[in-house]
Write a structure and sequence with these properties.
heterodimer; A: 41 residues; mainly alpha; 2 helices; elongated; B: alpha+beta; 5 helices; 6 strands
Chain lengths: 41, 221
């Protein structure tokens, strides 16, 4: 996954599980709006 | 999951998608070579020559080796039933082709041909697990179905092949067609609802973590 979409626990190399899919879903929902990446650097 | 090759890590989502979909475009001589080859084919020439230094589609993936990929051709028939029409796309480990299923009323399917050195085939066991649960849960309707799988032998090794139902354009492609790039509220709500239903099925019923949900708006299977 591109960095900007990664769940925090994945980016921080912590144990991850089902919740990362909810994070991804939230990122998808945000992307419906045509503006910057939600967490653009 | 397929990894999109993008140039420049800070590009906006839509522009990075365009860059990967039209890989040759940023390099002007390469693009001209593609146009020239297309014109040759349009004039009825059986073969068109492409500048070999011009990298196209999967050739642009890091670590690309031509021997890894199976040389699919339009008109080729797999398993005496899947007749190749044309290319749908590619990933870092596969190419995807639109086919007709000759044994099922010529319905359209998408054929994904993996490279012959796939380290671990992760998708197939997951799809088989989902298919074994299909009939019991409603959410499976929102997950793309695996219809068939088989192995073929190519000039340099064996290739796993997956057959999926052929899908229409994805939401990102649809957005490019809408002026202003704003979806109607109803479409958004319905799409998000369907995604959640599929996700619920994966998590609760199938015990699967997708790991690539943010790619839902992106292309290609």
């Amino acid at each position: 996954m591109p960095d900007v979409y990664r769940a925090p626990e994945v980016a921080l190399d912590m144990p991850w599980s089902y919740p990362i899919d909810l994070w991804g879903f939230a990122m998808t929902a945000c992307d419906f709006h045509p503006s910057q990446h939600t967490f653009a650097c | 999951m397929a990894i999109l090759f993008t140039r420049g890590s800070r590009s906006r989502l839509t522009s990075s998608l365009r860059a990967s979909a039209l890989v040759a475009a940023p390099h002007i001589p390469c693009f001209a070579s593609l146009i020239h080859a297309t014109a040759q084919l349009a004039r009825g020439l059986a073969h068109a020559t492409l500048n070999p230094s011009c990298l196209v589609e999967e050739e642009t993936v890091r670590g690309y080796k031509v021997e890894h990929y199976y040389p699919v051709e339009a008109g080729e028939i797999f398993q005496h039933r899947y007749s190749v029409i044309g290319k749908l796309g590619y990933g870092s480990a596969s190419t995807v082709w639109l086919c007709r299923d000759l044994s099922k009323e010529y319905r359209y399917v998408a054929l994904k041909v993996y490279i012959n050195c796939s380290r671990v085939q992760r998708e197939l066991p997951v799809y088989n697990h989902i298919n074994s649960l299909r009939s019991k849960y409603e959410g499976h309707n929102h997950i793309r179905r695996l219809l068939d799988s088989f192995e073929i032998s190519g000039p340099h090794g064996n290739h796993t092949c997956l057959v999926h139902q052929a899908l229409g354009m994805n939401l990102e492609e649809l957005r490019e067609l809408i002026p202003g790039g704003m979806f109607a509220a109803d479409l958004m709500r319905q799409s998000l609802r369907d995604i959640l239903r599929g996700l619920y099925f994966l998590q609760e019923d199938a015990g699967i973590i997708h790991t690539g949900i943010a790619y839902l708006l992106l292309r290609n299977h």
